[in-house]
Amino acid sequence: MPLKNGTGNKLLTTDKVAKDLLARWKNNLVLTKSVYRDLEGQFGDIGDTISVRLPNNVIVNDGRVATTTTPMNDNTVSLTVNKQKNVKFSWTMKDKKLAIENFGQRYLEPAANRLANEVDIDVAREMQKAYFSFGTIGSALSREDVTLGHAYSRDVAIPDDGMCRLIVNTLDNANLSNNIANVYNEQMVKEAVQKGYAGQIDGFEQHFSQNIQTHTNGNQAGTETVDGTVQNGNTVAVASTQAGAFAINDRFTIDGVYEINPITKQKTGRLQTFTVLAGTATGTSTTLTVTPTINMGGATTTDGEGNSITTSMDKNVVCDGATDPAITVIGDATATYRENYIMHRNAIAMAMVFLDLPASGHGSIASDKQTGLNLSVSEYFNGDQNQNNLRMDILYGVKMVRPDLIFRATCQKIG
């Protein structure tokens, strides 16, 4: 029989705390509600890794004869559950006698808010790996930028299926506020409106978040060139005497390397933008690891049986083959910029799993079937300190799995 306090109310339990915290945490999330969340069933514990299968492109033959075979070779991206966040309280019998409403407002609301922000920040950092570009460098995001961004996203075959969102920083949300149409009171009952929703603009739901990251460029000289010719693969060699200091998530274009529509394989008319994932100085050049992986149509890979197979169906750029083409970095050297995004739900994947409850003490778990969110709450006694501890844990992994489904805008310069 549950213990009761002097007024006849039941004492707080870890089950009550877990359910209340989950509801508050869910309501505080913004970016996490905009990502793919259907992978939980494939994980079991911290450190687990799964391979997320990507859509396959095919080779279409013309006429009666099937001249070219599409290889049966799945492209995959690894997603690992490797992030754990927790909040710990020391609580007394006096705390346990509080009504859940009072305890929730006093302790669980700030815990939920901080946990939500931590998870959203991890999502925002993955978003910075986006390479497709829209917006006007150095200027606040405008309605025209959003309209063109919508058109650009169609140019590269991002699905127009209602799952793309415009996700902006708080200042650019204010700049766009006068352009938001049809936000009526009845829309305020939508779950998405509860946190970070700003209405409809150019076919997108507009969401805003304080957790959108700024980006500070590396100390490039502004005269960088490719060392030789552009090659297939995920690296770009930059002439060492001009390489400067590229920062992670810097973006650049290469003269003569063009973005294409992945279906028609035709140029869109814009240079392909690349994002720096890593950089290594090696003697005569600096090698940048970039996304997207360059495929000019003649690349090959090896299947599971060791056979060389074509990846021509995954062609993603047209290159004019010039030697030592110029590199143009987006933004000024060492400058800091606010950023914004157009993102399809399937660009980033997240998975959450339950943390095992302690063998001793009390513990509860809570999950939300609609969103896949879950958390663990445990209560245990610290004999050394002679106190009860209450701990709340979340365990998850997040990964950019489809960078071809997200656009990034480098906007106002703030430093």
What does this structure look like?
- It is built from 5 helices and 22 strands.
- The strands form 5 sheets. Strands 4, 5, 6, 7, 8, 17 and 22 form a 7-stranded mixed sheet that branches.
- Helix 1 packs across helix 3 (100-127).
- It starts with 13 loop residues before the first helix and ends with a strand.
- The longest helix is centred in the N-terminal third of the chain and has 28 residues, at 100-127.
- Strand 19 and strand 20 (374-382) form a beta hairpin.
- Residues 1-9 and 181-194 have low confidence and may be disordered.
- It is an alpha+beta fold and 415 residues long.
List its salient traits.
six-stranded antiparallel sheet; 415 residues; 35% strand; single chain; globular; alpha+beta
Number of helices: 5
Give helix and strand order, one letter per element, not per position: HEEEHHEHEHEEEEEEEEEEEEEEEEE
Main sheet summary: 7 strands, mixed
Q: Based on DSSP secondary structure assignment, what is the total number of beta strands?
A: 22
Average of per-residue pLDDT values: 84
C-alpha Rg (nearest Å): 25 Å
Poorly predicted spans = 1-9, 181-194
Strand content: 25-35%
State the distance separating the first and last CA atoms: 61 Å
The residue fraction in helices comes out at: 10-25%
Shape: globular
Structural class by secondary-structure content:
alpha+beta
